[in-house]
Amino acid sequence: RRGLAGAAGPPSTRQLREAEEAAPVFQYAGKAAKRKDRVFVWGFSYSGALGVPSFVKPDASWKKPRRIQPTPYRLETEEKISSAACGYGFTLLASNTRDITKVWGMGLNKDSQLGFQRSRRDQTKGYEYVLEPSPIPLPLEKPQQTRVLQVSCGRAHSLVLTDSEGVFTMGNNSYGQCGRKVVEDEIYSGSHLIHQLKEFDSRVVQVVCGQDHSLFRTKKGTVYACGWGADGQTGLGHYNITSVPTKLHGDIAGVNIIQVSSYGDCCLAVSDEGDVFGWGNSEYLQLASVTETTQVNVPRHLPFKIGKVKEAACGGTGNAVLTEEGNVFVWGYGILGKGPNLIETAVPEMIPPSLFGWSDFSPDTRVAHVRCGLSQFAALTNRGELFVWGKNLRGCLGTGRMEDQYFPWRVTVPGEVVDVACGVDHMVSMVRSF
């Protein structure tokens, strides 16, 4: 008789296998189940920017309007969305498709930043608010061949990048941000005007809207800019407005730029060698590492000793960069992500990798991308997780709470987050279902 002591020994391999086979199955997804591409939205809904009409105008008498959606909400879309952008109360979605409709807009449209959205009641008028994703017809020469690669949104203007027909611009052009001549007293509401830009040294591969300026990066690694320049954000060596996209020089002359970023009035650029360059507003120490002036009108190299940088996110008052090792560094002013004590710094500080899920148990977890809006940041990991921090204006962080977030917090999204776009008070994410 072995007594009780024998039973407590480690289970044999056979026992483990039998237990495994007897265990219940909880996931019934087929082996060949297709993963679906979905879009989730959250934040302030009253502008229409979330694209869910029932939030603004309830579709049943017992429902209340939902001014704020504090957690990710699935948006029904017909197409797979490959690029999204959030402006000041509006959203653009684009699909890399050969179908006629390639771009949809929703939200605020007082400056025709979503193109002309014909009113159903009065065919001559356009909607100033668009409550659901509505097609934006582009004046394409070859609508069944040309693809839309990327979209970007500013305060009241939009840029649409195509693979073979250049860049299309729409919305407010008061400062030349659409890359066309400023027309005095131009009425932007109900405008049919969509302008095409082609005059670049090579194909444009990235478009970026700042608040009231625009940046264009070409295949050759050069950067062009137009629009409002009072803070030097066009980087053209002056503080005037510019209505023709013009090539930037300064410290990026002859440098191969692989990414540019801007959301407010400051701009950052990253070179193929991992260097960071900046220009524009420096009231919040964004460029204080090289100058004491608060406006910088020509690109300057920022001599950070943080290793090679592969991506930058340039917000309204704070900046973030991602290094090749997968580390995130932040500087500037505001809620930077290292707790309530770090409010301003001119020197980049690293956010501990453990806050993005790195640990001894998951040593391969890395941040893959950094994104930002006006006063919030987002980081995507190589495991498809989304972390956010910053000002939680009108629930834009998607955490389900209304408090600001002083360090990275994981957003619960049902799927693997592929990319995310941040606005002033809303966000959009592209998700692949599990």
Describe the structure.
Keywords: Membrane, Mitochondrion, Mitochondrion inner membrane, Repeat, Transit peptide. Its main location: mitochondrion. It holds the Pfam family WD40_RLD. The chain has helices at residues 13-22, 53-56, and strands spanning 37-44, 68-75, 83-86, 90-94, 103-108, 129-135, 148-153, 157-162, 167-171, 195-197, 204-209, 213-218, 223-227, 242-247, 257-261, 266-271, 276-281, 295-302, 309-314, 318-323, 328-333, 344-351, 367-372, 376-381, 386-390, 405-411, 416-422, 426-432. It has two helices and 28 strands. The chain is globular and about 85 Å long. It starts with 12 loop residues before the first helix and ends with a strand. Helices cover 3% and strands 39% of the residues. The strands form seven sheets. It has a four-stranded antiparallel β-sheet with strand order 2-1-28-27, with no helix packed on it.
| Poorly predicted regions | none
Helix content: under 10%
List how many beta strands DSSP finds: 28
Strand content: 35-45%
Total helices: the number is: 2
Shape: globular
Largest sheet: 4 strands, antiparallel
How confident is the prediction overall: mean pLDDT? 95
Secondary-structure element sequence? HEHEEEEEEEEEEEEEEEEEEEEEEEEEEE
Multimer state:
single chain
| Class by alpha and beta content | mainly beta
The radius of gyration over CA amounts to 24 Å
Strand order of the largest sheet: 2-1-28-27
* Terminal Cα span: 51 Å
Brief digest:
The protein has 434 residues and is mainly beta. It has helices spanning 13-22, 53-56; strands at 37-44, 68-75, 83-86, 90-94, 103-108, 129-135, 148-153, 157-162, 167-171, 195-197, 204-209, 213-218, 223-227, 242-247, 257-261, 266-271, 276-281, 295-302, 309-314, 318-323, 328-333, 344-351, 367-372, 376-381, 386-390, 405-411, 416-422, 426-432. 3% of the residues lie in helices and 39% in strands.
